[in-house]
Specification:
The chain has a six-stranded mixed β-sheet. The chain is elongated and about 85 Å long. The chain has 357 residues and is of the alpha+beta class. It has helices spanning 3-13, 22-35, 40-50, 55-62, 67-78, 88-97, 101-109, 125-137, 146-154, 160-166, 196-213, 223-233, 236-251, 255-268, 277-293, 314-321; strands at 119-122, 157-158, 172-174, 177-184, 188-193, 298-303, 308-313, 332-334, 339-343. Helix 1 crosses helix 2 (22-35) and helix 5 (67-78) packs across helix 6. The protein folds into three domains: 1-53, no CATH class; 64-175, no CATH class; 188-345, no CATH class. It has 16 helices and nine strands.
């Protein structure tokens, strides 16, 4: 696309046909990314020039003159109230010693560079340099250094430590959006603790399944082991046997039989539409997963080995993790230690270790 076509599209989208306020230049930035092959940083430079700004002016406006002013700028722009970053002085020194220090400062002080969108985002070029510097210098209480990188790249604010104190899932806020960010070597991701009530029901089910099948899967809680138990339960004979046990308990004066009967019946009464233990179990899982996934708007997963960010919206991620045909989804790895572990290779944006250049 030529500059003329970009300017034509820009004027077409502006209410008055020409820029009248600062957000009009944000629209120019979006159009440049849509209609050209420029990187986000290169696009921002074009917008800066369109606004009559130059790198020395931008640097002066940010008032970053030393490590103290740098620290103040980072905290004011990329942290929610009371969030801490340890090592900002070291980060500033690393940036100043870097051959591309001017670009790094501009990347930090420019308006938001990237937009939340599902897909794979290689952490390369100046973004990769910034990632490396933050990795080597920054520590975030109850969080990961990558949260600061993400906040800078996407124009957000880090709330890792604050989230840890309040129980809120979000690591970063980007405008009105919330993001949970994972930074792992492996492609199986810990999505965090499941709701207590759901875990209690899950454990009760596994205890009952052990009694009925003899299989103890309470420790690993792996998808394959759980699905094998569901396969066993999903037969007419097993269903008949369970109903007979319930009746025996109801008719018996033996306390142990009565307790077993009551536990079995609890899984039939979780919902009016549930008439088997399998449906009850999948209902438990789906409610737990929904509670977890919908706690934020976006889930970000970084593979350290190839420095690639994979983004999934909660709306697109949730259906992949729900039960399918009364079995655990292939995207669920396990519920080890009552946490949800997800297989990145099963997501829409397949999370792999293969370089994404």
């Amino acid at each position: 696309m030529t500059i003329d076509s970009i300017l034509t599209e820009w004027s077409y989208r502006l209410p008055k046909g020409y820029p009248t306020q600062s957000r009009d230049y944000k629209m120019l930035y979006d159009i440049i990314l849509e209609m050209s092959d420029l990187s986000p940083l290169e696009a921002q430079r074009v917008v800066n020039r369109a606004q009559g700004l130059h790198e020395d002016v931008i640097t002066e406006q940010t008032q970053i003159t030393d490590a103290a002013s740098f620290e103040q700028y980072i905290i004011q722009n990329f942290a929610v109230d009371k969030q801490q970053f340890i090592g900002l002085k070291g980060m500033y020194n690393e940036i100043m010693d870097h051959p591309e220090s001017a670009q790094l400062i501009q990347l930090i002080t420019s308006p938001p560079q990237m937009r939340l969108a599902a897909g794979a985002v290689p952490i390369r070029g100046i973004y990769g340099e910034l990632y490396n510097i933050i990795e080597s210098t920054i520590k975030i209480p109850n969080g990961d250094f990558s949260e600061l990188w993400f906040a800078i790249a996407y124009g957000g604010q880090v709330k890792g430590a604050v989230a840890g104190n309040t129980g809120i899932e979000a690591d970063i806020e980007v405008g009105t959006d919330t993001v949970s960010l994972k930074n792992y070597e492996k492609t199986t991701f810990d999505f965090g603790s499941l709701p207590t009530e759901g875990v209690q029901l899950l454990n009760s089910f596994l205890e009952m399944a052990k009694l009925l099948t003899g299989q103890d899967i309470s420790k690993s809680k792996g998808r394959e082991q759980i699905n094998s138990v569901l396969d066993f339960l999903d037969t007419e004979k097993t269903e008949t046997d369970i109903r007979r046990i319930i009746k025996l308990g109801d008719d018996s004066d033996i306390p142990m039989l009565q307790n077993i009967s009551k536990k079995l019946q609890s899984f039939y009464q979780l919902d009016d539409n549930l008439d088997t233990m399998i449906h009850a179990f999948c209902n438990i899982v789906d409610k737990m997963v929904t509670h977890k996934i919908e706690s934020v708007g976006w889930w970000g997963m970084i593979i350290k080995s190839n420095k690639t960010l994979f983004l999934e919206s909660s709306a697109e991620l949730l259906p992949l993790l729900m039960c399918r045909n009364d079995r655990l989804s292939p995207a669920i790895a396990n519920f080890h230690q009552n946490k949800l572990f997800v297989l990145g290779s099963q997501l829409n944006t397949k999370v792999t270790k293969k370089p994404q250049d």
